[in-house]
Design brief:
This protein is mainly α and 244 residues long. The protein has 9 helices and no strands. Helix 2 packs antiparallel against helix 3.
């Protein structure tokens, strides 16, 4: 049977700061032998490693939960948008029929409902204290980056539990996020993508579907709409007219 490999505890302990009793400057009752010092160090390392692993697990859980919540929100939002678009499409058909039939009241009612549905709703946000509002304004990544947001949420209670309050709390939160994810903050200013359409651009009628191409009864119907609906334009009429 081979003998177990001997361990030079004194050399290993000395590398970690251990000193013999005659060189020990602390309380003699707290001095440890080299072997005990090494074994205790292994136990502490194991505990720290376990804590780091648990922290990583917790961060991963937060990221996964945040992702699932975001997916659920996106699905619900898409469902609402699809239902809204379906109603708008039905109203647009009603508006076209109203134009064809010369029904000004039906046109005005359908057009009003379409405009109301297309008007973005103002989001209702909870009231925040001024420091929180300023922090959100200065750190837009919290609303745009799920990974950073999940990490910030995961360490928020720990920072507060460490005694940070007020502005110091938000400064520490920002510091820890940036220290953990430095690559995400290398290029904070990004160019806007090319080719994005400007909001509010209007689609104009093609050269084959101009007002002059309309039949006489359609032009007469437009004249009636113009009288009955303040501000009603030829562009609106052409967009609603059923050319088929």
């Amino acid at each position: 049977m081979e003998a177990e490999e001997s361990v030079n505890y004194e050399a290993e302990a000395a590398r970690e700061g251990w000193a013999p009793l005659e060189q020990w400057k602390g309380d003699p009752e707290k001095w440890k032998s080299a072997e005990q010092f090494v074994e205790d160090g292994k136990n502490i390392s194991g505990i720290l490693k376990h804590r780091v692993e648990k922290l990583d697990e917790r961060v991963n859980q937060l990221l996964e939960s945040n992702q699932k919540l975001n997916e659920l929100s996106q699905k619900q939002l898409k469902k609402e948008q699809d239902e809204k678009q379906k109603v708008i499409s039905e109203l647009e058909e009603m508006r076209k029929r109203a134009v064809t039939e010369g029904d000004g009241d039906a046109f005005a009612q359908a057009d009003k409902q379409i405009q109301e549905l297309r008007t973005p709703e103002k989001p209702q946000t909870p009231q925040l204290d001024p420091l929180a509002e300023q922090w959100l304004s200065d750190n837009s990544w919290y609303k745009t980056d799920d990974t950073l947001a999940a990490f910030a949420d995961g360490i928020a209670d720990r920072i507060a539990g460490s005694g940070f309050r007020g502005q110091a709390y938000y400064n520490e939160l920002t510091k820890r996020v940036k220290d953990t994810f430095p690559d995400k903050f290398k290029n904070p200013n990004r160019d806007k993508p090319n080719g994005v359409e400007t909001a509010g651009e209007q689609v104009v009628a093609s050269k084959d579907r101009t007002f002059e191409k309309l039949p006489k009864d359609a032009k007469d119907a437009y004249a009636q709409f113009k009288r009955d609906i303040p501000g009603f334009s030829k562009e609106q009429y052409l967009a609603s007219y059923d050319w088929e």
